[in-house]
Amino acid sequence: MNTQWLVAKYIPDMRRREPTNVGVILIEPSGVAHGRFRAVRPDGTFDGRSARFAASGDNYRAHLRYWRHLIDQGFSPESVAAAIKPIGDESYFLEFGGARLSASADPTDPVVLLDQLYATLVEETPENENLGVSELSDAVIRQLAFPEGALHRNSRIEARIGGARDPLVFDYRFDNGAVNLMRNVPLSFADQRSWDAVHATVYSFKAAESILEAEGKQQRHISFVKPRSDDVELDRQLGVLGSQATVVDVSDPDRAKEELGNLLGV
Q: pLDDT: is 205 or 252 the higher one?
């Protein structure tokens, strides 16, 4: 079975029978499936404000649960055929969207392909405000051409503080003559939580700096942020981060890709 995708559709007016696309289900050759739908946040929770297109939010949520059940089960050729329904008397249905070469011939990451299909078929300009800094930075990272095996996720550096073991964790590490340590810094909240994230990041970078300097290694620190609405505390937080790292704003993924690519030389 080749990589296939199904398009989730919604008919707001059954008299006119004009469907609109509300989601995509991508099915790998193995049957493993991935889905992305309107009004669903990256953590899987439902965003009622983004579901105002639906006449009934409860009805839409019920279909989301059904589609998620199909995704969790995985697909066979038979179940793909069973899931596809022609336009009938239901407001929601799945329609075959297309297929492409198997994964062995097509190296595109399934998640990247899903994002591309969603942007093309559902939302030409996906709402990045619904994505967190981790999802946005990951999307930027996936678009860069790192040498195979050179990028490490959730990389650890062992520190010792007062004789106690203190593992420092970085979201990404890339070595290209210098050690590039990268960390996501959530700044969503205009309260102490954002300051805690800033302080933890600065502490980790400074602790890693002393370790890597002792090993004679050059290094670069990069903080990924998605700034909230501007306020005095945000300016201060970005200033503290900037004292210890290069700050990359990933709320505009295209611009962030170019900036990060230049920083890392990829």
A: 205
